[in-house]
Amino acid sequence: MDFTRLLDEYNLDALFVSNPHNVRYLSGFVEGKDARIVITRNGPTLITDGRYLVEAAQQRFPYRILLNRAETNKLLAEFFWGRVGIEAEHLSVAALEGFQQDFPNLEFVSTRGIFEKLRRKKSPEEIALIRRAAELADQGFRHILPFIKPGVREIEVALELEYFLRKNGSEGLAFSTTVASGERSAMPHGGASNRTIQAGELVTLDFGCVVGGYCSDMTRTVAVGQVSGELRSIYQAVLEAQTLALEAVAPGKTGRELDTLARDHLTRLGYGAHFTHGLGHGVGLFIHEAPSLSQASEDILEASNVVTIEPGVYIPNLGGCRIEDLVLVTEQGHEVLSHSPKHLIEL
């Protein structure tokens, strides 16, 4: 990366990078939450503390070790001058006030999305890691199906799934696992509770792995025994909407266009008011990143973007359904990275 050109583009003399995902993206430093990068015309420098001395030596940038976190601004004085860019969507107000107090003669400039824009387009190496994370998620789905049965608590299913994923190579969870059964399946991000799964219910599982820092994201909804005709109709409607949007994924499409395809189909079937979130989002080092697929989005898909397609229908006091695939945008169209079956599985 040409850091001098980057500073010139934004008319900056230095840039302070505090978002941990951007720290990892730039440096490869795994513990990004405990590090910062300051970029000047002499290049980037990683700043962390003594707990990460070994890790700091393994990443790609020169580094400095803080012996005392209270000395951060004293160290930054070696790098800050003129116009200093900050990541406005991450740096706290308190930290900015501290900078302004300690560096009264400098101009601090809010920046937004500098590295997030770069992170949208994945390299072949990044795609390979996301692909591995998606494959592990598929393995996890196959593993967990026999555990979903009447009398088992949602939290027990979630713990078994998480244990399998960690045991088989996931660095952690991309986000909190959702196992939502019965009426709780009407909660898009319902987490996993102590509720006992019962026959005749839908169960929604939303989970993700992390491989090499990169996330996967997949949702499947299954039936425990026979479910009502109404729940079957909901499932079929969501599957059709997901298929319509998925088949349209290609470079040049906007997030709004794809969202509209799924939303209009659900509206025609009478479920539009119950699709209460956007169609999808980008996935990478962070589980929710650009591009966005929603009615509010004008983001345009490009080859090498990785996005989710995840319509859902949620009806309070009845239940809900979501079906989500991880999708790579290619030059010719798209490649679906999630391979778990999407027909209604009856357990």
UniProtKB/TrEMBL annotation:
Keywords linked to the UniProt accession: Aminopeptidase, Hydrolase, Metal-binding, Protease
Checking InterPro entries in the record gives: Creatin/AminoP/Spt16_N, Creatinase/aminopeptidase-like, Creatinase_N, Pept_M24, Peptidase_M24B, Peptidase_M24B_aminopep-P_CS
Report the GO molecular function annotations.
aminopeptidase activity; metal ion binding
- Ranges of residues in domain Peptidase M24: 129-331
One matching Pfam family: Creatinase_N
Q: Provide the Creatinase N-terminal domain boundaries.
A: 5-119
- UniProt family annotation: Belongs to the peptidase M24B family.
Question: What is the official name of this protein in its record?
Answer: Aminopeptidase P family protein
